[in-house]
Amino acid sequence: MVSFRKKKSSKNVDTAAAKAGAEAVAPSPSEDAPAADDDAREPETTASKTPPIPSRPPQMDDIPDLLETMTTEKGEKSAAATKRIYELCDVGHKQNRVPMVCSGKYDVLTPLAQCLTQESGDGRHLACLALNNLSIPTENKRVMALGPSSGAVIGGLCKVISEDKQESYLCCICLMNLSFLEASITTMLQHSPVADGAADPVPPLDNPESLIRILEKLLKNAPAVPKSGSGKSEGVRWACGLIKNLAKSEENAALFGKTDIPKCVVGNIRNTTAPPGRWTSNSLEDFSLFVILNLAQWPVSRQALIESGAIDVVRPIMAEGDLQGLKAIMACAFLGAPWTDFPDGGSTAAKSISELMTNIIEKKGKDGQYAYGVFKLYTATKAYRDLCYAANSADGDAGESNTKVLAVPSAVALCLQVVSDLVLAADDEVNGGSKYVPDVKSAEYSAAAVTYMLPAILQAGDPPRKSIQSEKACGEISTMLTQYANLAGTGAQGKEAAQKAADEIKAANGSARPILEVSHDSWTQYRKREGQPMDQFLVQEKGIEVDESGPLDFLPCAGSDSSCIIF
To answer: What pLDDT is recorded for position 228?
Structure first.
């Protein structure tokens, strides 16, 4: 998250510790402020209908008068009032940020948005700083991005960016702050203003003044190798940070796929001179790779990346053993890279993605790489599914399956856990369930991953032998997958994958399957720890019920005077 504070000697954005939570992966710019020449001068002593600005530090009770001065006065007086509004929400007054926006006592957003249209740089700059600080609290994001003033706020920020003002990067940061509220991202990208009095709205892709077209123009007009720290490079950098968040929505990805933005972010990676090991969090390269990852997972935007040469550009980054390597591995899996592209025979990719899945379910991050909440479970499980598909597709007619590096018992058990937790959550009569209820897509991708790993999961023991444990594993797992396939909310692809896996696992009964046994044992231990019902997936023969008319599971006896024998 990005906020700003007052500094006396620099206009540069410094780096500081990132705001706690899922809103940032690593350090981000700290709170900045106007340079000394932006400080407001003393107001002129001429007759005015607005009250004079007191010389004491501003207080919340001053807000109505300050807003009146901002909207009715011009030049120095308006800028001085805007400066006071900014000071009320700077780093030393964080407690004021939510009341200023959400209390209902003031409308600070509309006047600040109006200041963004000023020709004077002082008032515009101060308004940008204030809006950035106000955009940090989660409560404020909803009001600023979705509330009555959202059109004015987003429109004002877009206007500054489109006019290439020196505050453009601040506006991109503010929009990025707002986009951390996932409920807002589809609405934000639909921003497409029309002239007053226009009868019909204009689709974003048909409007050069829409947010998506303004971002596209900013990226397309950037130099191939922008000067680090320049206003232009900072604008492009934070625009990519905004796009990274907006691309989490499939609806938004469909729009991005019809622009040159995928080509631009691939170009950012291609043109960089810094090796991936030196990319810092929130750098242009870091943001650009995140955009590629987020767009790659959606079919509606994947082709645009492939046509831009994304696989060739991202492939070398997979060898990195850090966050950038993880992002590159998942992106290449989504883009359909062949199995031979993954380093170390795919073992590194398998380990890193399965570890990510575990961390997401256990609600933790990885020190020095990512925080909990940065990645979604459906993203991680989809990447694992696509990796399993790549390995399975590369299998030959003979020899060991490539999926063996993926079908380690812990990873297989994790996939079974995701599917079974959804089955239990969907059964209202079951007492006991998971603390982490997966989404429908995560269960679908996990079931498909199991299906692609079956050549390795069902590999028979050497020498072949009978195994009671394998018989039990085949019975419980096939029953669980069948129950999942029969859920009302299971999609066609999930149903097909689960039923195929259930049938093959059931047919494998009779011989020892070591990987299946150990995976089943790990899955069973998890269910015990969670206090889940252990008989939920057992194959139970309940026997035949009878009454005086005969066995209820068969045709009734011919008549009441028949000689049926009731036991």
So the answer is: 61
Q: How far is the CA of 335 from the CAs of 10, 138, 263, 309, in angstroms?
A: 43, 34, 15, 10
> Residues 226, 283: contact at Cβ < 8 Å?
no
CB-CB contact of 418 with 395 (8 Å): no
Token pair of 232 as six digits: 């232009």
Written as six digits, the tokens of 340 are 């031979």
* Nearest to 433, CA basis, from 296, 533, 360: 533
User: What pLDDT shows up at residue 545?
Assistant: 54
Cβ atoms of 374 and 25 within 8 Å: the answer is yes
3-state secondary structure 510-536: CCCCHHHHHHHHHHHHHHHHCCCCCCC
Is 126 in contact with 83 (CB distance < 8 Å)? yes
pLDDT, tens digit, for every residue of 78-120? 999 999 999 999 999 999 999 999 998 999 999 999 999 887 7
Query: Which of 51, 24, 54, 26 lies closest to 40 in space, CA to CA?
Result: 54
d(CA 52, CA 32): 27
Query: What pLDDT, on the 0 to 100 scale, is given for residue 122?
Result: 87
Question: DSSP of 11-78, one letter per residue?
Answer: -SPPEEPPPSSTT-SS-EE------GGGSPPPPP-S--SSPPPPSSPP-GGGHHHHHHHHHH--HHHH
Query: Tell me, what's the pLDDT at 224?
Result: 62
Task: Name the token pair of 236.
Answer: 């492009």
Q: In b/e form, how buried is each residue of 242-273, taking b as 16+ CB within 10 angstroms?
A: bbbbbbbbeebbebbbebebbbbbbbbbeebe
Q: Please report the pLDDT score of residue 399 as a whole number.
A: 77
Residue carrying structure tokens 């501003």: 58
- Can you state the percent helix, strand and coil of the chain, rounding each to 5? 60, 0, 40
Half-sphere exposure of 84 (CA within 13 A, CB side): 26
- State the Cα–Cα distance between residues 507 and 479, nearest whole angstrom: 12
DSSP H or E segment with residue 211:
helix 211-220
* Residue 463: cis peptide before it, omega within 30 degrees of 0: yes
User: Token pair 């080509």 is at which residue?
Assistant: 263
Q: In this predicted structure, what is the pLDDT of residue 44?
A: 42
21-68 pLDDT, tens per residue?
333 333 343 344 433 333 333 334 344 456 667 678 899 999 999 999
Burial label for 506, CB within 10 Å (0-12, 13-18, 19+), is middle
pLDDT value, residue 536: 85
Write the burial class of residue 356 (CB in 10 Å: 0-12 exposed, 13-18 middle, 19+ buried).
Answer: buried
Q: What is the pTM of this model?
A: 0.84
HSE toward the beta carbon, residue 516, CA cutoff 13 A = 34
What DSSP string runs through 285-304? HHHHHHHHHHHHTSHHHHHH
Angle at 499 between CA 298 and CA 338, to 5 degrees: 40
Ranges of residues in the chain with a pLDDT under 50 are 5-48, 541-544, 553-562, 564-567
